[in-house]
Amino acid sequence: MAHFRTATALRRRGGDPVFDTELDPQWTIGTKLHGGYLLAVLAKAAAEVSSHPHLTAISGSFSVAPEPGPAVVEVEVLREGRGLTQLRARLSQGGAPCTEALITQGVLTEGDAWWSGVDPVEIPPEQDCLPVPADGGGGFRIGLMDVVEQRLDPAAAGFAVGQPSRKGVISSWLRLADGSDWDPVSLLVALDPVPPISYDLGIAGWAPTVQFTAYLRGLPAPGPVRVRMRAGELGGDRMDEVAELWDEKNRLIGQATQIAAVRLP
Amino acid sequence: MAHFRTATALRRRGGDPVFDTELDPQWTIGTKLHGGYLLAVLAKAAAEVSSHPHLTAISGSFSVAPEPGPAVVEVEVLREGRGLTQLRARLSQGGAPCTEALITQGVLTEGDAWWSGVDPVEIPPEQDCLPVPADGGGGFRIGLMDVVEQRLDPAAAGFAVGQPSRKGVISSWLRLADGSDWDPVSLLVALDPVPPISYDLGIAGWAPTVQFTAYLRGLPAPGPVRVRMRAGELGGDRMDEVAELWDEKNRLIGQATQIAAVRLP
């Protein structure tokens, strides 16, 4: 099994902010590498050249889906400030840009929020939720589910038996299968959970992400995290999805939004 | 008065995707150029080199605040696809990168959504809302309010008299003062309205945007738009804000999220 740490390992080329990496075939959905995993590789490279330790914001644009195997990450520092470092990073394969990201590094703490307008997630205990199998049915393999243990709120799992709730909300528990705790970089994987929210609205087919943005808000407590994925609006063959993530101490530690392509009925 | 069209005008340097522009001193808050205005300049440049007509997504990172005056925009096409073009763009001044953006161009329509999970905005009629003056008090000038006519929901205007509602929601009506209708690019200005939502939570001081992301979902009907700005969570000297925008036909035509720096009490 590919540990998150080894699946995102980088080898720096001398003093330049250029890194070689080996994209891991297990962090996939069907034959496509998972978007949160690709952004995690970029974020790890950005951290290597930043004087601020933690990922605090990242926006990525997915133009070409890279294959598992060798890839190159190039980082450029846009500004090194007192409280944060702003960078851009590119993942390319065979000279073609695949994923481009804008990244802000800062300092995260284990402190509590000063004010929150976010509704807390409601989800049954982890053991009462349903594991998502790596076998997606019909020969469709979700390799990601071998390295991420995800358990769905039964209230939103009806799509699996042809009875989607049509509420546009799917909540789940998530752990890394290698037993390691989440950190701000690996949380990018948790912020883009499986399946796309369109499943809960009765729409079959995958929903490739076009652009994705995440904010990391605090250092996660050890243990599993809970994510709530909500649909915003679907129209014009596009949908937006909002993900929010809580740790074991009930702190909102991550947020994400994405715009994805979807084939509407 | 600086019309939006002239304030975002570009001169292309021959065949390269490099443009000269003149950042307009009226599109400012205090001495700082407005973030939505800067992204609009980048989006206009991206449209010039894309085969798809409409801005559909943009993520920007604000590293250095440029001064009004000459600036350069460079665009790179990441991928030209069948349904969309993905690009990156950089605004720089004196050779220093100021604003970097990831942009997706596509095709927007005047059609309705297929499904929506977004609560409709609630706001009194435009004439019952309160104009935001360009004089921000204490010598603080909001030049943007000379070129954008913004009227605040009175329910959220209490901060102006020291009585913030502390609900974390501010809604307003917006028109371009030059009389032109909104389009997907100018809506970037409307998606970053004044003041920051922290005012409604009783926190004084401006809140500079670190990263900002917008999705444009449809072509706006002529007339004013309504925007609702909501605070997500405030903690660790950061806050996230979500903006949603409706046109005269009550269609959700734009959405945005930003993470901003804020000095918490």
TrEMBL record, chains A, B:
<feature type="domain" description="Acyl-CoA thioesterase-like C-terminal">
    <location>
        <begin position="127"/>
        <end position="262"/>
    </location>
</feature>
<feature type="domain" description="Acyl-CoA thioesterase-like N-terminal HotDog">
    <location>
        <begin position="24"/>
        <end position="105"/>
    </location>
</feature>
<dbReference type="Pfam" id="PF20789">
    <property type="entry name" value="4HBT_3C"/>
</dbReference>
<dbReference type="InterPro" id="IPR049449">
    <property type="entry name" value="TesB_ACOT8-like_N"/>
</dbReference>
<protein>
    <recommendedName>
        <fullName>Acyl-CoA thioesterase</fullName>
    </recommendedName>
</protein>
<dbReference type="InterPro" id="IPR029069">
    <property type="entry name" value="HotDog_dom_sf"/>
</dbReference>
<dbReference type="InterPro" id="IPR042171">
    <property type="entry name" value="Acyl-CoA_hotdog"/>
</dbReference>
<dbReference type="Pfam" id="PF13622">
    <property type="entry name" value="4HBT_3"/>
</dbReference>
<dbReference type="InterPro" id="IPR049450">
    <property type="entry name" value="ACOT8-like_C"/>
</dbReference>
<dbReference type="InterPro" id="IPR052389">
    <property type="entry name" value="Sec_Metab_Biosynth-Assoc"/>
</dbReference>
